[in-house]
Write a structure and sequence with these properties.
By secondary structure, the chain is mostly helical. It is built from three helices and no strands.
């Protein structure tokens, strides 16, 4: 009888250990799945960060290029005098439009409202850049 009781207690202990092992294995599998999910999210965030960094560098370069062209025009304007008052006034008007459009472009590029109108914002940025280029061409010729 004592042997039977010992065998039953040992059997119960083994069954309990098996249940604990299975529960531990399930927790390990769940944690591995959670880890993979977090690694995938980290990877996606790193890609997004790299893309945003590249976009920012491109925008800064474009803004620098536009500013350089405006400075060139200002220098050229300072060195040459207009033949008549009408030409001088037109030049001032065009320069004011370039500066105003450049200010709009700068403000738009710096705005980070996180809205869903990103495509609209990019379209507006492209439009303003084209407008500045057209105004600069008018000033240079």
């Amino acid at each position: 009888m004592a042997g039977l009781l010992t065998a039953l207690v040992a059997g119960c202990t083994i069954a309990e250990l098996n249940r604990e092992d299975k529960a531990d294995e399930a927790r390990v599998r769940q944690r591995e799945a959670d880890l993979q999910t977090e690694q995938a999210r980290t990877s996606a965030l790193n890609q997004q960060k790299e893309q945003l960094t590249a976009e920012l560098a491109q925008r800064q370069l474009s803004l620098t290029e536009l500013t350089d062209r405006v400075d060139q025009i200002r220098k050229a304007n300072a060195l040459e005098s207009a033949a008549n008052d009408a030409a001088r006034l037109e030049r001032k008007r065009l320069i004011a439009r370039v500066e105003e459009t450049n200010a709009q472009l700068t403000a738009l590029q710096r705005s980070t409202d996180g809205s869903s109108a990103d495509a609209e914002k990019q379209g507006r940025i492209a439009y303003l850049k084209r407008q500045i280029d057209a105004l600069l061409e008018l000033l240079l010729h």
